[in-house]
Design brief:
Keywords: Hydrolase, Magnesium. The chain has one domain: Nucleoside Triphosphate Pyrophosphohydrolase (Alpha-Beta Complex). The strands form 2 sheets. Strands 4-1-6-5-8-9 form a 6-stranded mixed β-sheet, sandwiched between helices. It is α+β, with helices and mostly antiparallel strands. It is globular. It contains 3 helices and 9 strands.
């Protein structure tokens, strides 16, 4: 019998940030295009601190992290767990850094036009349609394929 390697997952956080005008914060990633701020959780970092840090690094603003809204599980070609939160803008001027090419406050409709990657668009749509629960989706990429979707706070 061969030994199996310990499972390895990348842990990622994302945040749908709104300002007082109810605009959405989007950043432009070099490879994926426009998306919500998101990135990997660093060793020893908790999810909430990671979400605040990623928004600050990618857009230059401070946010309050609100409720967990979604969990996504990418199962192929690599494994990643993505925890997505809702957030509220607190302070700062948009100032993209090395982690992003641009940042903008846009309407929901404009954000949906700008975010063109199937995976990132699915994430944005799910967060915009947040109903107070925590949605769960399992998917693969190349090509994008949704395997499972359910609300984690309800039982059939």
């Amino acid at each position: 019998m061969t030994e199996q390697a310990d499972p390895r997952h990348t842990v990622v956080v994302g945040c749908l940030v709104r300002n007082a005008k109810d605009e959405i914060l989007v950043i432009r990633h070099r490879k994926r295009g426009w998306e919500i701020p998101q990135g990997r959780v660093e060793e020893g970092e908790n999810l909430l601190d990671a979400a605040r840090r990623e928004v600050a690094e990618e857009a230059g603003v401070e946010v309050e992290i609100g409720p967990l809204a979604a969990v996504w599980s990418m199962v192929s070609p690599t494994s990643a767990l993505i925890f997505a939160f809702l957030g509220r803008y607190l302070s700062g001027e948009l100032n993209p850094t090395d982690d992003s090419e641009a940042a903008a406050w846009v309407s929901e409709a404009e954000a949906l036009k700008m975010v063109t990657s199937p995976v990132m668009r699915e994430r944005l749509t799910g967060l915009l349609n947040h109903d107070g629960g925590v949605s769960y989706r399992s998917y693969a990429i190349k090509p994008y394929q949704l395997h499972l979707e359910r609300n984690l706070l309800s039982w059939p």
